Amino acid sequence: MQKCISLLASLLFLTSITAFAQSKNGTVKGFVYDKGTGEPLIYTNVLFPGTRYGAQTDLNGYFSISLPAGSYTMITTQVGYDTSTSTINLLPDALITKKLFISNQGLQLKGVEISGRKTEKQTHINVGVTTITPKDIKLLPSSGGEPDVAQFLQVVPGVVFTGDQGGQLYIRGGSPAQTGILLDGVTIFNPFHSIGLFSVFETDAIRNVDVYTAGFNAEYGDRTSAIVDVHTKDGNKNDIAGLVSVSPIMTRALLEGPLVKSKKKNGPGVTFLVSAKKSYLDQTSKSIYGGLGEPFSNGLPYSFTDVYGKVTLSSDNGSKLNLFGFSFTDDAKLLDPQTHVPIADFNWKASGGGGTFVVSPGSSSALIDGKFAYSRYNINFNNYALATPSTSEIDNFEAGLNFTYYLPHYSELKYGLEVSGYHTSLSYNELQNISTTLEQQSTLAGLYMVFRKNFGEKFIIEPSIRFQYYSELSQVSPEPRLGIKYNINDNLRLKFATGLYSQNIVSTKNDVDIVNFFTGFSLSPQQTVNGTNGQPVSSPLQTAYHVSGGIEYDLNRVELNLEPWVKDFTRLIEINRYKLYSTDPDFAAGTGIATGLDLSAKYSYDRIYLWGAAGLQNVNYTNIGSDGKVQTYPAPFDRRFNLNIVGAYTAGKKKDWDLSARFNLGSPFPFTLTQGFYEALTPGAGNNVGSNVNQQNGTLTALYANAINGGRLSWYHRLDVSAKKRFALSKKSSIDLTFSLTNVYDRQNIFYVDRYSNISIFQLPIFPSVNLTWNF
């Protein structure tokens, strides 16, 4: 390990020194914006025709290009926008700053479109990376007529979703707690509502979502499986704009515009963006859908409220400050479908706020950005068969500072520092109805460096390293990572990524629960934790090792991507599922190995969009079973086969009809079988050793099969369709009318199984909905 870290550190140092050894070059830097709204345009090509020099804008719309002195023509291209052209006269060691504005035209040369898509593939590693935009999200058939990123994430290769209601996200063998989900740099601990068709993120407030399913570089830390990074857009600089949407599920609204308007169009100023959505399915489902039978006849008891607000202060040179705040709440009850009596309920709330900033120094081509934020999350779950409810609370602060240098030929150097602090409070019930309470706090510090070097047009290497410090453990975790890509030709590319990862977040998810709604959080235990050999582990920190690769092939207009992957969870810290006495340890250490193969194909041309993703995976954990012996068993989210097929077509002479369909097929999830039940008695209750157990009412307790997750639920499959008609009211105003049908052939997919009553609750039956959205 030490040799590996030393080698990678030396490689980073030598390549970064080489990268800065540029002589007699000048630099052109700047930002690219949407001319109509002033919104920064991401992944936009800035090119110098006739040369090998160019760049793509980052998440801030920023670019920086170093090239020899001379006269050049510079063009800016983005799919769906016009092409901006300007002349540059560059002197040696000169720095030219440009602000470029391009208009949304919807028309562009096909050759430019193809070039724009390929630039990203040919200049970035992109192993296990999917970038999602609001346009992508709206291509899918939207359940309830409401497009949401939660629905699009389900079709990302390697992602397993547990379904409509209470849906959880499992990415390439990792549990939800092993996936870091960020909103403007703030960690969101539970982004999916109890009716899992919807997330806390407002689709029309999103700029983009980056999903890293494996092998991500050292920019991200404290997670051992995956990252979902959500960025919101800035408010409209020039006009008041927004939307109002109404459906039987929810009402949502978004409003944006200038608070302090600039004297010139797209100049410096202050903008705002506010979004809110409120679900009232618990009130409408019975009256509107009661005639469809269960579960609508007694109403669907799910409700949520999400509010997000953002203020952006921007300067004339592209620097800006974003201040934001959010509040997300969710409430649900689980009802017996025969008696309509509640058998469990849960609710959670997430709130917080903070800021991000971007600084573009006038005398440097570097970009400086940072964040500071505070958030809190708490959840309560009450299973009426257990004596006491389970509760969890986590609050944290986060701060970070990053420096980015954009080098010739799409190369880049980035380094930064992050500091965060956590406080967790957890109270939960064990399988034997034993209550455990834990309270912990920790401060984390991360230092990272990432370097990407493009050698000509063929070879790309991206070494990176992260040092993570966990104060509660007094432990430093060095984590080297590496990405490589080789462009065989313009249409065929090979890629590879590997790395070490760690985290100190521990979840209460239990492998023997059939379906688990309660996700409580704790930090790595400071008490002794034993491994499967009965001996204390060297560290209570969770660790993993990733190896992933891939082949990208562009066949005419079809984009193919094949990615095999392996995640070796070398240390998994879990709640001790077999705690019998209060003196037993609260945690146990095991291991896990996840392997998989994902294939995706995309076709997009003119009015047709087709997307297919198929995945094979095998996720096994090793830990101590109820018989005290070591077991290797499938993880509760071990879906061996997953298939998603999406089709969309734009119809009508004015292209004002959008038709779409999605089919999902998934193999059965595993679960631990029940052998029987017994009455657990407490002879010493009330400190009375002589209590009469013959007259005592004990607690009903399940007796589990020795084989963990030895059973399998049923196959999951579902077809959704939708049709949207757009009515133009004016140049800037329109109405969208959407009809959607969820679960077209009324498949009964498992939602929740209560082990004690053997009651099964299914996910949504056939579910028609109409949505009306006014865009202005």
Describe the overall structure.
With 776 residues, the protein is mostly beta strands. The chain has 5 helices and 45 strands. The strands form 9 sheets. The protein has a 22-stranded antiparallel beta barrel. It has a 5-stranded mixed beta sheet with strand order 8-13-14-11-12. The chain has a 4-stranded antiparallel beta sheet with strand order 3-2-5-6, with helices on one face. It is globular. The termini are far apart.
Please outline what is shown here.
The protein contains five helices and 45 strands.
Which segments are poorly predicted (pLDDT under 50) over 5 or more consecutive residues?
106-116
Strand content: over 45%
Structural class: mainly beta
The portion of residues assigned to helices is: under 10%
How big is the Rg?
27 Å
Distance between the termini: 57 Å
Average of the residue pLDDT scores: 86
Largest sheet report:
22 strands, antiparallel, barrel
Shape category: globular
| Multimeric organization | single chain
Report the count of strand segments.
Answer: 45
How many helices? 5
